[in-house]
Amino acid sequence: MTMWTARVSLAGMLMATASGASAQTMVDPPGGRQPTPAAMRVAPLPPAAWTDAQKALVEKFARYGPADNAARTLLQVPELFDGVMPYTIYLSEDSKLTARQRELLILRAAWLNGNQYLWARHAPRARQAGLSSADLKRLAEGPTAKGLDPLDANLLAMSDQLHRNASVTDATWAALSKSFDLFHLMDAVETANHFMVLALIYNTFGVQPDAGNPDRLPTDVTYRVTVPPREPPLAVARAVPPAGRGIAVGRTFGLYPELSRNWSPRQTFILQKSPVTPRHREMFILRMGWNCRSEYEWSQHVGPVGRAREWGLEPKNIALGPTAPGWDPIEATILKASDEVYRDGVVSDATWNALVDRFGIPWTMSGVFSTADYRAISLSLNTYGVQHEPNDETFPVF
């Protein structure tokens, strides 16, 4: 049996196994239609209402520009703003990618997730980085658009595969590896993933484009996400972490200290500063890991990182989803919110309103951010091939 035949055979077996449980346990993957952002749900906080701590945060991140609608929306939860901004600035200003490559990936994330705010903010930056109006239309058309530079086409293909499949094929990784070293590859993956997170939360919070940014998503391009079938999980890491203390994900990101340093505040907010209780936090995280088929994420949050059972959670019920027996209505709604972020790119009005009525705006913003963030982490873990720790508990079998 050839390696290709073995891979196809394994993929078929995985699809067959998943299909037996998919009617109950999994939702459709994203990319079937372009998400439609919500109308404004969280009002941007006017400067006159800022506390001294909020003013200090705006000053701390002033190099990203004046506090616009997105910044003033996130300031409603200052710790969330403080957790998001270091990675946003690093990936948009300081990564090893060229400015042109960064903006191409950011705008593709905006297109894939239907986010007008990100498109409006970054289209002018893309032109400053050398992308023409014709280039902007081509990147909306996707990796098969006529006239694309081959490297640009591979970057767009990577973005589309992350969006739809939660992973990157061997062929696309190999093609990008001809132009990029590991740090450039990680910057590319993280840019696509982080700006997807921002698109998802901005869609859900209803962040509107600023008045001074007239660019909007192209209306003359058909929304289409066409990718190869998802390949089986990697059995060997693409980014091989050094031996040592700590779990594999930390050692993997630690390969690239500058990236890791700016990535960490995002995780610190969720795991240490968020108002979401550990039980509900792990529901948001595990449901997203299940939908993204990220077994490493699942195992860590069932086990030593999230300790799901210590919070009274039965992992199989999270895999079964919001209709599983035993969930009370509000916890079923938490799982539904995660499903909607994954599949639809936005939380529905009914789900949003139910969470806000029960928990309030800061909690709901933090919960949506948590599940959106762990979509990005799932995609990174799958793409880098982070391998299980000894004795990990893997996905339940139905």
Strand content: under 5%
**Number of domain modules:** 2
Structural class, by secondary structure, is: mainly alpha
Q: What is the percent of helical residues? A: 55-70%
CATH architecture of the largest domain: Up-down Bundle
Q: Would you state the CATH class of the largest domain?
A: Mainly Alpha
CA(first)-CA(last) distance: 29 Å
Helix and strand sequence: HHHHHHHHHHHHHHHHHH
Indicate the low-confidence ranges by residue numbers: 1-23
Radius of gyration: 20 Å
| CATH homology superfamily name of the largest domain | AhpD-like
Mean pLDDT: 93
Number of DSSP-assigned strands: 0
Largest sheet, strands/sense/barrel? none
Please, how many helices? 18
Give the CATH topology of the largest domain.
AhpD-like
Secondary-structure topology with pairs:
Layout: H1 3-25, H2 52-60, H3 69-74, H4 78-94, H5 99-112, H6 116-128, H7 133-141, H8 150-165, H9 170-177, H10 182-205, H11 248-253, H12 257-273, H13 278-291, H14 295-302, H15 315-320, H16 329-344, H17 349-359, H18 361-384
Helix pairs in contact: 4-10, 4-12, 5-6, 5-8, 5-10, 8-9, 8-10, 10-18, 13-14, 13-16, 13-18, 16-17, 16-18, 17-18
Structure description:
The chain is mainly α and 398 residues long. It folds into two domains: 31-41 and 64-222 and 237-250, AhpD-like; 265-384, AhpD-like, CATH 1.20.1290. It contains 18 helices and no strands. Helix 5 (99-112) packs antiparallel against helix 6, helix 13 (278-291) runs antiparallel to helix 14 and helix 17 packs across helix 18 (361-384). It is globular.
